[in-house]
Structure formats: structure tokens, C-alpha cells
Amino acid sequence: MGGLTMKVAVVGATGLVGSKMLQVLAERNFPVTELIPVASEKSVGKEVEFKGKKYKVVSMMDAIAAKPAVAIFSAGGGTSLEWAPKFAEAGITVIDNSSAWRMDPAKPLIVPEINADILTANDKIIANPNCSTIQMVVALNPLYKKYGIKRIVVSTYQSVTGTGVKAVEQLRGERVKEVKGESSDYPMAYKYPIDLNVIPQIDVFLDNGYTKEEMKMVNETCKIMRDNSIRVTATAVRIPVMGGHSEAVNVEFVKDFDLDEVKALLQSSPGLVVVDDTTRQQYPMPMDAHEKDDVFVGRLRRDESQPNTLNMWVVSDNLRKGAATNAVQIAEYLHSKGLLG
Description:
Elements (H helix, E strand, L loop, with lengths): L6 E5 L4 H12 L6 E5 L8 E4 L2 E4 L3 H6 L4 E4 L3 H13 L3 E4 L15 H4 L9 E3 L3 H17 L1 E10 L6 H16 L31 H14 L5 E8 L6 E9 L5 H9 L4 E3 L11 H4 L5 E8 L6 E8 L3 H17 L5
Parallel strand pairs: 1-2, 1-5, 5-6, 6-7, 8-9, 11-12
Antiparallel strand pairs: 3-4, 8-10, 10-13, 12-13
């Protein structure tokens, strides 16, 4: 598909991630000649704004009939399982933000900095990884290439925007109640209060005692890094922060490392920013990552309890690099290689 026409559909355009997709497409000047916003039946006919123009939300069938070059999905796993194949059958490349296709061996799971090179014109359904996995592998990949990785222990500190609008409203409602003493009606996205609390559960529990979110990090990391020998264990935790996920990552390398070399490798890698100056109390925080596309890394230090092991702190805006930006970067790669349409 040449530079003259680039129809782009955004499925789930009225949701939290869908809205961010539109913002990122505009900011990065992706060559959209016609936007096709898609949402559930109840949203059809509503308007969304993109680059100063209003576009009417259309149904799935209308979107397929419009034959966009690419459709970026952020509408949940069930919707993706049902509709992504129908878009793909019509020759439309789907970039899907749900967990529906990530572990399908026939579908590529892509972080452009790491493995976009595997994409071909025949890949019509491409999976966008989980937000917490994306930021971790972006930080680990340059180190993996140099030292090899045996094992990763990760604990996450994930913001409420990862759950969606309802969770944002719950946190805001609880905070108003706490600060002003006013009880307002707000939805409960979680079983428990999130303000002034920490919930060590993200997604449902599985038979092994881990949550789905934790096992996503285990399985997706090996698939993206193309190395099933990497052992990963994860604890995923929801914290009362509005946006931006943080992770404490403990990584055991195959070979020993030099700390200055680690820092230099990270500093020279695309999509990474090192913030690591303990003398000035400088380290990455979610508030600094807000509305940024980079992954921020700091608190770099040797694990003194065992050899070849590094501790690091990794922070990223989960709606951007963790979702929308990564999806748009996949589309940019496909476009630059002439793989769309």
C-alpha cells in the first residue's frame, strides 16, 4: 500500500486504550488518510475526534466493508477471537492488543525493538504483548544479547489504568471520600478498595496459584525473546497509582557483567532511558513516565546474594509503550517494509 491511501481502523476506539491509540497515531504522524473508528453496537453513531476532524463510530461489518489496510484492536479477548479472523480473511492486517492470540504458535507476538524482523506480509493477525511484559523485555533485551539470561524474578507495581475506566473511577471516588469525606457513587472495579491499599491479584487465579497476568509474563517473555530456556517467575500487584507500571526485576545472567557496561548498553538502546543517580536520589517513577513512549530503567545494582545477578527498576506508561505505542510501532514497521495491503 503506497503513501497515497492508508485507511486505518481502530477497534475499541471509545475505550481507554483505543482513545490512546488515536492520540498516538496522531502524535507520531502515522499516514492515516481515513480513520475508521469501531466500537460496540451501543457506541455506533457516536463521534470521535482525530487530528481536528470528527469521525462517526461504525460497526464491525461496516469496518470490514471499508477495507482498511490495518485494524488495531483494543476491544477485549472475546471480541478479538470472534472478529480478528474475519478482518484477516478480508485481507486486513490486524494488530491485536488483547491476550487472545499471544500464545498462538502461528501468530507473531511483537515488540518492534526486539523481534519485528520475523514479520511477513502473510501475518494477518499480529499480537501486541501484555503491558508489563513489554517494558520488561525492552529493558532486558540488550543485556540478554550480551550476557544471556538464565532466570528472571519480577514483582510488578501496576497502575489502575491497566484495568480500565471503571478502576480509574473507583480510585478517584475513594480518594474524594477520603479527602473530602463526601461519599459519591462510584463503581467497584476491584473486590476491595484500591486507594490506601495494595491488591496482590491481577486477573484471575489459575490452578498453579499464579494469576493469569503473572503467567502472561512467564510465557510471553520466552516467546518474544525466542528462548524457551529462560525461567521466569512473577508476582503482579495492583497499586493506587493512576498511570504507569513499575517493576522490580532480578535477572540472573549466564555470563558475569560489569555494572558500567550494563549502564552503557542500556543507554545506547532504542526506547530506553536510564535514570540512575543515587547520589541525587534519581530513579524512574510513574509520574516521570506519564505520556512518554520510552521505558525508564534505574536502581541498577548487583545482587550480592548470588553470582551473575542484577537488580533493576523498570517503569513505563502502560497505556503508551505498554499498549498503544507498541501497536502503532508495529504498524509503522509494516508500513516501512511495504507489508500492508
